[in-house]
Amino acid sequence: xxxxxxxxxxxxxxxxxxxxRYEIEDVSPDMSFLEMLDVLNERLILxxxxxxxxxxxxxxxxxxxxxxxxxxxxxxxxKNTTTCQLHMRHYNDGDTIVIEPWRARPFPVxxxxxxxxxxxxxxxxxxxxxxxxxxxxxxxxxxPVPKLDADSAFDAATCIGCGACVxxxxxxxxxxxxxxxxxxxxxxxQGQPERGSRARAMVEQMDEEGFGGCTNTGECTAVCPKxxxxxxxxxxxxxxxxxxxxxx
Amino acid sequence: MTATIDRGKATEPxxxxxxxxxxxxxxxxxxxxxxxxAVSGAVLVFFLVAHMAGNLKIFAGAESFNxxxxxxxxxxxxxxxxxxxxxxxxxGLVVAVVAHMYSAIVLARRAAHARPVKYAAKVKSRAxxxxxxxxxxxxxxxxxxxxxxxxxxxxxxxxxxxxxxxxFARMVAGFEPARWYITVFYVISVVMVGLHLRHGLWSALQxxxxxxxxxxxxxxxxxxxxxxxxxxxxxxxxxTFGVVR
Lengths: 248, 245
What we know:
The structure holds two protein chains of two kinds.
Chain A: E1 3-9, E2 18-24, H1 33-46, E3 69-70, E4 73-74, E5 96-100, E6 109-111, E7 114-115, H2 118-127, H3 147-157, H4 164-168, H5 175-186, H6 195-209, H7 219-223, H8 231-247
Parallel strand pairs in A: 1-5
Antiparallel strand pairs in A: 1-2, 3-4, 3-5, 6-7
Chain B: H1 30-56, H2 62-74, H3 84-114, H4 130-133, H5 135-154, H6 167-174, H7 180-207, H8 214-240
Helix pairs in contact in B: 1-3, 1-7, 1-8, 5-7, 7-8
């Protein structure tokens, strides 16, 4: 099939950037979205042009690197799917596809479609961990965890930190990302001692990075490739407010 | 003693990501502002329920309606002065409205700040829709409606009967058939309030971390906001269509 792409091109953080139109022929429906961009880049390189910079790593939907706003939807039209797992069979001959980077002040554009998501690292650094003596691995049954808690914690832990929640949120909020980690650790016995301080530190870091507040629109969970549920945010809010009440 | 083996790139010092300068810690967190919105919103919801119950007394006749209005001013007397309890409640409502609006404005500004560059493609909403997207502008419309409503029914400035008339007379004159456009304005505004509540009711519980069982919660929020909307709409419509005169 033949497609028209409108891709955000920006040579660096200080460039203004613009959408550039590319016609691409003979796209196979079996290609992934990133493979389609690979083909585009090969042609750009052959023509002596600068290839489109985009983040990618595992290409099997588990690393969270590929980050593209495709026709105004984070990770494109397929639910619970990262860009790399989106295939061209969902498009028709003659379609026009607009591809943009995530848009948020805490995610500055590095080049073209690549944004710097270090803000997420700093939120994790603020409290997304448990402080335990790191020795040899403990026995698997040393700390009993109720099955339902283990399942919910695991669901939250599947967050790959791709940033789609921020990109889709009308407020540019990182609540789903932050809440996923707070839920993951807060549900497990190992996470209890730091539960309150973790929620406070991570929520405050999220604000400090310049992310917006949550208005419970649910756009984040709708585009999340891992389907992180909205109740994680309720848990984060509960932990945060409880901790704030205790220590003022 | 530590020996360092040079492995080229692998042993090079890691370039640290520069952390950006920390802003003042005194900034109120967005989560706290949202909690303020939730609590002040809850105060306003309780007020709306009482307000609706009072309005519906119009169907019991002028005496009952005016009697209720008079009782509101006398309740607690002589322990409290005339209009004592009402003044306390009014002050509480003003505080709630101001807190709700202040938090909304700060949060809206932070949200705008968080996305300096807009998307070129129209962003498609993937989640539940209209009520959520109209919260901010809906809130502004409701604010202007409340101002008109106070001028109309409380102060009587925008009412044909004026301040001196009984509450019943003001109400009936305000929605008389000839003033059908006022009724239309009220209907639109009350529907806006209903939409605002539809998202606001469950959103407040989510913000306070009390949300459980979302399908039940959202259905209850929709049910309660529908009930309030209908409860508020029947009165002006009944007057305009001549059921109450």
